[in-house]
């Protein structure tokens, strides 16, 4: 069989980890990065100089590109792995024809700010990608642990089960187990919302709250996510599954969590700008909380955790005061 040709778009940790996983299988990867020097470095030394630099990339299977129109040529699968805030800018070089007939995989756990759309909805609106072309990579998995080849699990969601199963096969390897699911939008929304919860966990940690409080916060957050999903996209789903609860747990508790780290700085008194400047990485929850809060103005679901994080980050409310109020609402 001829190897599957896959274009991966993005130069960060998750793109690097996905390439590491995929290249365990029989694939050819066309990797788009925006930075010319990084691409040149990868061509020469076979590792990403900025993210997960300890990961060696297969020289025959992985080919870096800096022109996106070139990178997508001949690929049957496009994997999007840039933060949601940059997707519109990055894809502006492409036309709807570049997506036609391909499997479009979103590895993004964020919304498209401004339009408050899930990445799949945004691609449908702007590039005419049809719903059954999409797969979403979900599940509790940090790029840093993939780099260490620690056993991980991923869920591949698509409304087309066959497509999810095929892509799940390509993402399965020695240290990654995968399974398909059909709750495309539920999984995508949950992945966006768990980042908001991780921000809340970080803020509370930064304020000095302990494990007892965090356990209550996370269990209340799961109920908040359920209330929102039941209204925005009702579907028979088991929220105890690893794509939902599992992802919420890893992001809330892990030392690798970008969102928790960002939140912790806010709880300790950093401004948003200084917390962002400290990180070489992107905390998706910062953008997501604005989108979800704005979407919820229409639905009016009871979401005290989202509201508190929004008020702290966007209205500059005191974290101590907001969390003191939230404390009274948790059960
Ligand atoms: N890192 C993980 O473990 C992990 C796991 C699952 C999902 N994700 C998701 O993957 C997506 C990518 O995150 P990541 O962790 O790879 O990013 P990261 O935080 O490691 O790196 C930041 C990324 O943003 C890009 N970037 C920064 N400024 C940019 C700009 N102006 N224009 C275009 N790109 C710009 C950088 O090139 C880099 O790719 C996010 O949606 C994230 O939620 C990450
Ligand atoms: O935990 P974070 O904030 O680094 O987000 C990364 C992934 O979404 C975890 O699955």
TrEMBL record:
Q: SUPFAM superfamilies recorded for this chain?
A: 6-phosphogluconate dehydrogenase C-terminal domain-like, NAD(P)-binding Rossmann-fold domains
**Which sequence ranges form a coiled-coil region, renumbered to this chain?**
none
**Predominant location category:** cytoplasm
Keywords, alphabetical? Cytoplasm, Lipid biosynthesis, Lipid metabolism, NAD, NADP, Nucleotide-binding, Oxidoreductase, Phospholipid biosynthesis, Phospholipid metabolism
Q: Which residues bind sn-glycerol 3-phosphate?
A: 109, 139, 194, 247, 257-259
Which PROSITE patterns does the record match to this protein? NAD_G3PDH (PS00957)
A single GO cellular-component term from the record reads:
cytosol
Q: Does the record bear Metal-binding in its keywords?
A: no
Could you tell me what this protein is called? Answer: Glycerol-3-phosphate dehydrogenase [NAD(P)+]
Q: What is the lineage of its organism?
A: Bacteria, Pseudomonadati, Bacteroidota, Cytophagia, Cytophagales
Q: Which gene encodes it?
A: gpsA
């Amino acid at each position: 069989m001829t190897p599957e040709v896959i274009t991966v778009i993005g130069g960060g940790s998750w793109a690097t980890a996905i390439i590491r996983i995929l290249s365990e299988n029989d694939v050819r990867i066309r990797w788009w990065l925006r930075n010319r020097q990084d691409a040149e470095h990868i061509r020469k030394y076979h590792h990403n100089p900025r993210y997960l630099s300890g990961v060696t990339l297969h020289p025959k299977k992985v080919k870096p590109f800096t022109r996106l129109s070139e990178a997508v040529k001949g690929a049957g699968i496009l994997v999007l792995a840039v933060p949601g805030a940059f997707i519109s800018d990055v894809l502006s070089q492409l036309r709807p024809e570049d997506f036609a007939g391909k499997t479009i995989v979103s590895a993004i756990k964020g919304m498209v700010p401004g339009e408050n759309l899930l990445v799949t909805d945004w691609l449908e609106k702007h590039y005419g990608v049809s719903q059954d072309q999409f797969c979403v990579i979900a599940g509790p998995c940090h790029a840093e642990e993939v780099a260490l080849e620690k056993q991980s699990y991923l869920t591949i969601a698509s409304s087309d089960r066959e497509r999810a199963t095929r892509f799940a096969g390509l993402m399965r390897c020695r240290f990654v187990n995968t399974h398909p699911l059909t709750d495309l939008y539920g999984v995508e929304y949950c992945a966006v919302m768990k980042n908001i919860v991780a921000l809340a966990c970080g803020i509370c940690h930064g304020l000095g709250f302990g494990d007892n409080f965090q356990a209550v916060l996370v269990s209340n957050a799961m109920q908040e996510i359920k209330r929102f999903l039941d209204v925005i996209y009702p579907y028979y789903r088991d929220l105890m599954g690893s794509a939902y609860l599992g992802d919420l747990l890893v992001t809330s508790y892990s030392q690798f969590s970008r969102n928790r780290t960002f939140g912790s700085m806010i709880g300790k008194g950093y401004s948003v700008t200084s917390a962002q400047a400290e990180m070489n990485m992107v905390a998706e929850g910062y953008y997501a909380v604005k989108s979800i809060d704005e979407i919820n103005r229409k639905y009016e679901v009871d979401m005290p955790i989202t509201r508190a994080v929004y008020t702290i980050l966007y209205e500059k409310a005191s974290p101590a005061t907001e969390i003191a109020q939230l404390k009274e609402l948790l059960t």
